[in-house]
Amino acid sequence: MEHRVESAVKINATAEKVWEILDDFGAVEKFSFGLQKSPIIGDKHSGLGAKRHCVFHDNSSVNEEIVEYQENKSFKVVLSEFSMPMESMYAGFKVEKISDTSCEVSMHMDFVVKFGPLGALMGMAMMRPMMKGVQKKMLSGLAYHAFTGKTIGSKLPPSAELAPALA
């Protein structure tokens, strides 16, 4: 059974600035909490076919490859070589201009949990809420980084520091 989780956030930064950050595919650690590094695999640094190897602070890792790409608008990645109990997992971002100084960024994740019917239940009860939390933190980190230029690191800043970044 495929599960889908979606979140969106309004950011006090231009759509162009936010896209520039997302399109720097080998630098996701600048806004993704808990991520130590994300070096590019191969020669392609952006666009369709670009790949990165994400290493978390706990030394777990995942590979991501862009499989859909609309320049200045959206992209979708397939995740592989991860330790989570997933058969498949995709994630995507979309940036939409709201005004000259703000935009909305939406994120979606589609995944299938291993273990058949038990996995489907596990997906509903555990994985969907967990992934929703990951999305919200990642989008908050993106907003903070776009607004301040500061790197997130292993945890998000306090709410009072995040608030000005959110529209």
Brief sketch in words of this structure:
The chain is of the alpha+beta class. The protein is built from three helices and eight strands; from the N terminus they run βαβββββββαα.
Care to describe what's here?
By secondary structure, the protein is α+β, with helices and mostly antiparallel strands. It has one domain (2-165): Alpha-D-Glucose-1,6-Bisphosphate, Chain A, domain 4. It has 3 helices and 8 strands; from the N terminus they run βαβββββββαα. Strands 1, 2, 3, 4, 5, 6, 7 and 8 form an 8-stranded antiparallel beta sheet that branches. Strand 4 (51-56) and strand 5 form a beta hairpin. The longest helix is centred in the C-terminal third of the chain and has 33 residues, at 116-148. InterPro entries: Polyketide_cyclase/dehydratase, START-like_dom_sf. It comes from Thalassomonas actiniarum. This is SRPBCC family protein. Pfam families: Polyketide_cyc2.
CATH-assigned homologous superfamily: START domain
Query: Class in CATH?
Result: Alpha Beta
- The SSE string, one letter per element, is EHEEEEEEEHH
Mean pLDDT: 95
Total strands: 8
Q: Main β-sheet, in a few words?
A: 8 strands, antiparallel
What is the straight-line distance between the termini? 35 Å
Number of domains: 1
- Number of helices, counting only DSSP H or I runs of 4 residues or more: 3
CATH architecture: 2-Layer Sandwich
Radius of gyration: 16 Å
